[in-house]
Structures are given as structure tokens and as C-alpha cells.
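Give me C-alpha cells for this 324-residue protein.
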Amino acid sequence: MSKAIRMTRTGGPEVMEYVDVEVGAPAPGEATVRHEAIGVNFIDVYFRTGLYPQPLPAGLGMEGAGVVEAVGEGVTEVKVGDRVAYAGRPNGSYAQVRNMPSAQLLVLPDKIDFETGAAMMLQGLTVQYLLHRTVALKAGDTVLFHAAAGGVGLIACQWAKVMGVNLIGTVGSDEKAALAIENGAAHVINYNKENFTERVREITGGQGVSVVYDSIGKDTFFGSLDCLAPLGTMVSFGNASGPVPPFSLSELQSRGSLFVTRPTLMSYAAKREDLEAMAQSLFGVVSSGAVKVPVMQRYNLADVGQAHIDLESRKTTGSSILLP
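Here you go.
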């Protein structure tokens, strides 16, 4: 038996129940992983509330790190005893033990501990594809990154600096502004004190940025479009404030032939060879120390409700993990 979080209905944090579940032997193509740490991400809130639908009853959580205890028939990616980490579906990482498709598992380098592994996979792989593949940034580019003091944001600040990219970050407090600067942001805008669109134009001498990375959604989308230079790209990769409302494509034309994309990690990592290449890129910058993954909040698995409350109220910085 394993303790795990299950939900039979969507709603607030109270729908997450701490229960016993039978894990069973891994099926062909699966491996049994005993978690040492579990990542908590805003996408988990989307599934909990029903913004992203899934069949019920269901588990939650898309990220974890631990040790392989058993493998099913045909598994070649990992073996018993391997230290592994993963990010991706199916949901269910909020558990002490689970069976996971082995094609999603990646062997964790010895230099990276379990807490870092659990905290970095979803967020770090997201930053990898955002900065290297969604738009292939180069040294000297200037971009805007919302929620720069969050888990994804702090990794992006550091990685952008390594690449020579000028990252302008938005945050909601002076404390978060200091944190983003400490992690490599070139400029930081406190959106509770300044109009971020006007400030971006000031910073860029009226030119605008080449890319906006927006995980906030409804509250920032149109202001973000106004930050872009002609032919710029709007990367909408989250909905923390709610989904972006429908809009006319003329909004893109009138601002200078803009591009808009709504990427997901699942699409970018759908092929095993792409997942492995992205992971090696992430493991490299983390193992070298060039990018650090700050675990700022730790919760017991049974206290996952409080983790979601803190995440939704924007009280968290950096990464949050559950300890099983």
C-alpha cells in the first residue's frame, strides 16, 4: 500500500484526500518508483479546479524524484536501483509510491539530489524549451518574463543570464524583485507599483521586446502584446489569473504582425530523443552550478492543501516540494 492524494471531484484544496492506494506490480513498459520528493506546480491547480479536465477519480501531480523499485516487461530506459526524476503525465506523483511509464523516467545525475530533481524537472524542462526551442534566443536579445520570482521564473532568470539574454522580469513585491535580480534578471518591474507595459517601453527605449513569456494569462495578455516589438512573439504558457479571453487576430496585425503560441512541455517532449536532449541540457546547467534550483517551500504530503493555498495566493517563491 502507498499513501497518495486522490480526488473524486474538482474544486478547492479540500477535494484532495490523503488515502491508502494499492500500487501493484508494474505493467509492461512501466517502472515502480518510490518517491523521495515530489514537485508542486501551478498546473496541478488547473487539474484540481477542473480548468484542465481529467477523468475522475484521479490523482494529482506531474513531477517527482526517487528510486526505481521494480520494472515491468520490456523496460530498457531504467533498472532497479536507479535514481530517477520525471515530469509529465499521467497525473499521480502526489504519492509515496507509484507506477510510471518508463519512457518518461530519466536517470538523475549523482551531483543532483532528490529535492532538486523533484523541484526542477517540470519547471526546468519548461525553461529549456521556452528559451531554446519555442524561440531560439541569442545573446543580446531582450525579453519580458512574467512571474520572475516563481519557480519557472527564477530558473529562467539564471539561464537567460548564462545565455547573455537581457531578461526583464515582473513581480508583485519588492522582496520578489530583489530575488529576481539576485538570480540574474537584468531589470525587474513591480507590477503593483508600475505599469509594466509603460516601463518595458522605457527600458527598451520605445523599441519593445522580441519575446514575452506569460504564464499569468487573462490579467497580463493584452498588456504583454503591447510590450512586443514588431514581428515579436507572445508565448502564453499558463493561466494563473484565468484563461485568455477570445480575441481578434487583428490585435496581432495592428501591433506589427505579431506571433502568438501556446506551447506545452508534453508537446515538446513527446519524443523520447527530444526529452533526453532537453534533460541533458537541463542537467548540464544544474550540475555545473550555472543554474540553481531554489527549493523555498517544503510540505509533508498530507499537507498538500496548504501547499496549494500558498501557491494560489502567490505567497510562494522559487520551487515547492512535497515530502512523502
